[in-house]
Amino acid sequence: MSYVALITGASSGIGEATARRLAREGDVRLVLVARREEKLRALAAELGGATVVAVDLTAAQAPAQVRETLEREHAGQLHLLVNNAGTAWRGRFEDVGWADLERHMRINFEAPARLTEALLPLLRATAAAVPAAAEKPHRRVAIVNVASTAARVSRPNSGAYSASKFALVGWSDALYAEQLGHGVHVGLVLPGFVRTEGFPAAELPARPQTRWLVSEPERVAEAILEAGPGGKAERYVPRWYWLAAALRLLAPALVRRATAGGALTTTTKASEASLAGD
Ligand SMILES: NC(=O)c1ccc[n+]([C@@H]2O[C@H](COP(=O)([O-])OP(=O)(O)OC[C@H]3O[C@@H](n4cnc5c(N)ncnc54)[C@H](OP(=O)(O)O)[C@@H]3O)[C@@H](O)[C@H]2O)c1
């Protein structure tokens, strides 16, 4: 039986790298989802064929559209769902307000939750049809939610992004426990800084002191395979970023002071500039 893998946000960055990585596995049928159809079609052609669903995942009909495509083109089979599509905008809450929180929640939390709701019956039916003894362990039926280390440590100007990823992580842990008995594994991936179109992090690679903080999308793709078909609970990229999450629990005041450092500097510089009449 072919392994059917659906990746959201496959038109660039981590999703595109994951599609390329999965295509190297034998006998995988890919379903590529994002808004930019021409990018998805070019990738599908390059990878020797894939199903393309060009859709805005925040649209009301998107989950049903994806499900109908799977039923039509893959007989309703689905082995791997990678909820990867996501976006970040920056801004202080006092400036960007609830509207910014809402748009982050819509794409980073609501969209994966609604898509999962629509596709969970297919994942469970696929898992039920795979005899456990015959199933290769590295080809589990699985959901991978791509969160962020921002789901463990919040930084100024990214509160809404962090809130949406915290929500994704909290929901994923419960979903894991709920689906365990149904043969559907739920894994999490928490990347740090990764150089992509939507997250250019231009200032970090430019400086030798911070260049080492930035990972490539291919590393995250490997982590997605480990957290999905590989059955791991969660993977940080790079791995040692779990230290930041642990420190946030053990020494919250320290982490707050460290993350606030940048904000205080920015605020001080802004006040100095305004005092100087800039
Ligand atoms: N790069 C990082 O530093 C970093 C760190 C931690 C976590 N992450 C997470 O990794 C995931 C992938 O991000 P990336 O770094 O690969 O960024 P990216 O290159 O900007 O990719 C984002 C993908 O999401 C898709 N997308 C965005 N809004 C969409 C919508 N409304 N409907 C359907 N698709 C949508 C985009 O495709 P279209 O524009 O074609 O729709 C694109 O394929 C995100 O969830 C992000 O939060 C990234």
Quick structural overview:
By secondary structure, this protein is an alpha/beta fold. The protein has helices spanning 13-23, 37-46, 62-74, 93-129, 159-179, 203-206, 208-211, 217-227, 242-250, 252-275, and strands at residues 3-8, 28-34, 51-54, 80-83, 142-146, 185-191, 193-194, 214-215, 234-237.
Explain what this protein looks like in three dimensions:
With 278 residues, this protein is of the alpha/beta class. The chain has ten helices and nine strands. Strand 2 (28-34), helix 2 and strand 3 form a beta-alpha-beta unit. The strands form two sheets. The protein has a seven-stranded parallel β-sheet, with helices on both faces. The chain has helices spanning 13-23, 37-46, 62-74, 93-129, 159-179, 203-206, 208-211, 217-227, 242-250, 252-275; strands spanning 3-8, 28-34, 51-54, 80-83, 142-146, 185-191, 193-194, 214-215, 234-237. Mean pLDDT is 91; it is low at 265-278. The structure holds NADP nicotinamide-adenine-dinucleotide phosphate (NAP). Residues 9-15, 34-36, 39, 56-58, 84-88, 107, 146, 148, 191, 193-194, 196-199 line the site of NADP nicotinamide-adenine-dinucleotide phosphate (NAP).
